[in-house]
Task: structure prediction
Amino acid sequence: MLQTEHDDIEKMKRGLSWIDLKESLNVDGCPICSTMLRSIDKYFKFLLYEYALDASVHKKMLASSGMCNTHSSLLKEAEAKLKSDGLNIAVLYETILKKEIKLLAIIEEKKLNERKDYFLGKTGPRDLILYKKEILSELIDKGLCPGCMHQKESESYCTHEMLRVSKDTEFRVKFEHDKVLLCRRHFLFLINEVEDKGTLDYFINTQKIKIDRLNTQLSGFIEKHDYRLKCGMTEEEKISWNKALEYFGSKKNIDRDGYNDLFGQ
Result:
C-alpha cells in the first residue's frame, strides 16, 4: 500500500464515516444496506422534525407526489418514533393534496370544454387513447421520491467510503467475517465503482468464497430436514435460507427505484 493511500485511510478512520461503516460491519448481511437503512431513518426524523415547513422539501414532494410505497411506510415509522400524532406528515401532504385538486380541476375543465366544442360542432368525438394520454400527462409525476433520492446518495457515499478503506487490515478482517455478505445489487454497484484491478479482484474473490460457503450451508439446511439428520443442523445452516433471500433481494425497505444506475443500464 502506498504511503498516500495509508494516510488517506488513517484520516478516514478518524472520522464519522468509519464509525458508521464499522457499525454496519458488525451487523449480519449487507453492510451497504445496513448503512442506507440507518441513513434514511435519520433523514426522515430530521425532515419531519426540522423541515416539514421547508419550501425546498415541499417542492420535491410536489414533483414526486410524495413518497413511494416503501418510503411512505418508513416515513410513517419515523413519525411514530417522534411520538407525533401525524401532524408533520399532514403538513407535508396537504400541499400535495392541493396540487392534486388543481390537476383534477384542470382535467375537468378540459372535459367540459371538449363537450362544449363537440356540442357546437367544432370538433368530432375524441380518440380514447389520445384522451387518456392527455390526462396522464397532467397527472404523471415529474420527480423522484425524496426518499429514493436520499437512498441513491447514501448508497453511493457508503460504497465509495468502503472502497477508500478496502486495503486496510482492520476493514478486511471485519468484511471477511462469515456474517457479512454484500447483497448482489451492492456487490454489482461496488464493482461498477471500483477504480483499480487489485481491489476489484479482492472483492470478487471474497464474494466467491462467501457465496460458496452460503451454498454449502443452504444445501446442509435442505438435506438435514431429513428427520434422521435434523439434530445435526448448525446455526449457520438454520439461517442460510434468509441469507440467500437477502443476497438476491437486499434488506427489507431498500427500494429498487432508489438504486444508482450501473454501467450499461
Observations:
- Residues 87-119 form the longest helix (33 residues).
- The two ends are 33 Å apart (CA to CA).
- DSSP finds 13 helices and no strands in the chain.
- The mean pLDDT is 88.
